């Protein structure tokens, strides 16, 4: 009997397997309820007394050996499954798909970069505005006809709460909370109730700029704009056409000379070579006063441009609606852009 157990012991020590089923069968054979070990233990009472000690020792040895074996093999099996789960950990990684910035962000970041080089910081404000910051402080009192220049989405009336129609509202907030010298640009989304077409949408994006200090002149404005157009478009020939904005006096539209070299130039500039890119002017003294700045001491200039139109221009996008559709096939095309 003892010899048989010793043979089993040798067999147990030799056993190896990576199959779950085989390991389980091995466990049942030795350690199961009707397994060999239990039958050996049952034999114990029939063993002559002088052999009991040795018999007891070998079955205990067999039991420990079989239990250890099952545990070791099961552990190995599990860690193999783990490994399988993560694949071959030494394999080189898959190249990661790189995303693209939205063309609006690309253009906005470039504009911010250009103005930050001449000392402008970035200011932001709420898209939901009150009447004061969007209109009244900007020299557009109630019933002023110029309010119709920008069709407004109202959220609530009396008191009026609305979606800002320009980021000039941010400039008002900035002047209310900062003392001159002020050099800030305000990028952001603005809303106007316009018929949606290939060229216009009910929301778009602006960057407006504001400079307030002692002795700021129209010449400073012109020089700043020229710097901007040459950095942004590589074109420094600009012209200022007299215009009207309630918050600036005098006011002007800025055209940049794009040229007439290609067919696209003809189409974009309607055969003139000139492109209108923004509005600007000297901040109306009333606006400075409304914002707590003494117009007798300080003067300033302001300008505002639409980012969407510039993005269409620079990336030759034919329809403004593409900018808000979030079609990945469209967005992916901007991977190589900054
Ligand atoms: N706020 C004007 C607009 O939205 C743009 C502008 C800003 C014009 C500053 C002049 C000065 O159309």
TrEMBL record:
Indicate whether Aminoacyl-tRNA synthetase appears among the record's keywords.
yes
Keywords of the record, alphabetical order, are: Aminoacyl-tRNA synthetase, ATP-binding, Cytoplasm, Ligase, Magnesium, Metal-binding, Nucleotide-binding, Protein biosynthesis
A GO molecular function held by the record: magnesium ion binding
Q: Which residues bind Mg(2+)?
A: 249
Domain spans labelled Aminoacyl-transfer RNA synthetases class-II family profile: 107-333
**Any one of the GO CC terms:** cytoplasm
Entry's EC annotation: 6.1.1.20
Give its localization: Cytoplasm
The EC class name is: ligase
| CDD domains recorded | PheRS_alpha_core
Q: Which Pfam families match?
A: Phe_tRNA-synt_N (PF02912), tRNA-synt_2d (PF01409)
Identify the cofactor(s).
Mg(2+)
Show the catalytic activity: tRNA(Phe) + L-phenylalanine + ATP = L-phenylalanyl-tRNA(Phe) + AMP + diphosphate + H(+)
Q: Which PROSITE patterns match?
A: AA_TRNA_LIGASE_II (PS50862)
What does this protein's record comment on cofactor binding?
Binds 2 magnesium ions per tetramer.
Q: Name one GO biological process term.
A: phenylalanyl-tRNA aminoacylation
Which InterPro entries did the record assign? aa-tRNA-synth_II, aa-tRNA-synth_II/BPL/LPL, Phe-tRNA-synth_IIc_asu, Phe-tRNA_ligase_II_N, Phe_tRNA_ligase_alpha1_bac, Phenylalanyl-tRNA_Synthase, tRNA-bd_arm
The similarity comment for this entry is: Belongs to the class-II aminoacyl-tRNA synthetase family. Phe-tRNA synthetase alpha subunit type 1 subfamily.
Q: How does it assemble?
A: Tetramer of two alpha and two beta subunits.
Name the NCBIfam families on file.
pheS (TIGR00468)
Q: What is this protein called?
A: Phenylalanine--tRNA ligase alpha subunit
């Amino acid at each position: 009997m003892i010899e048989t157990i010793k043979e089993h012991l040798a067999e147990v020590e030799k056993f190896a397997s990576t199959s779950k089923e085989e390991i389980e069968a091995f466990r049942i054979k030795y350690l199961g309820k009707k397994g060999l070990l239990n039958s050996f233990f049952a034999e114990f009472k029939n063993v002559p007394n002088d052999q009991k000690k040795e018999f007891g020792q070998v079955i205990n040895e067999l039991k420990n050996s079989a239990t250890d074996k099952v545990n070791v093999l099961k552990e190995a099996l599990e860690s193999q499954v783990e490994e399988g789960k993560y694949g071959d950990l030494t394999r080189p990684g898959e190249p990661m798909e790189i995303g693209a910035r939205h063309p609006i962000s690309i253009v906005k970041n470039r504009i911010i970069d250009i103005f930050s080089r001449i000392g402008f910081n970035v200011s932001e404000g709420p898209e939901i505005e009150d009447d004061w910051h969007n209109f009244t402080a900007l020299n557009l009192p109630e019933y002023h006809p110029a309010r119709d220049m920008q069709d407004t989405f109202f959220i609530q009336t009396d008191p009026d709460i609305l979606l800002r129609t320009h980021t000039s509202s941010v400039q008002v907030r900035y002047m209310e909370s900062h003392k001159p010298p002020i050099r800030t640009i305000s990028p952001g989304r603005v809303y106007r109730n316009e018929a949606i077409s290939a060229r216009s949408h009910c929301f778009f994006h602006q960057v407006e700029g504001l400079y307030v200090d002692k002795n700021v002149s129209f010449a400073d404005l012109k020089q700043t704009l020229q710097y901007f157009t040459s950095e942004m478009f590589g074109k420094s020939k600009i012209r200022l056409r007299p215009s009207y904005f309630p918050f600036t006096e005098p006011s002007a539209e800025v055209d940049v000379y794009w040229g007439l070299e290609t067919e696209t130039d003809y189409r974009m500039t309607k055969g003139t070579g000139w492109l209108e890119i923004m509005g600007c002017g000297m901040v109306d003294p009333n606006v400075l006063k409304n914002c707590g700045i003494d117009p007798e001491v300080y003067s300033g200039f302001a300008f505002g441009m639409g980012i969407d139109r510039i993005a269409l221009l620079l990336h030759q996008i034919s329809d403004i609606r593409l900018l808000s559709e979030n079609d990945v096939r469209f967005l992916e095309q901007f991977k190589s852009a900054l």
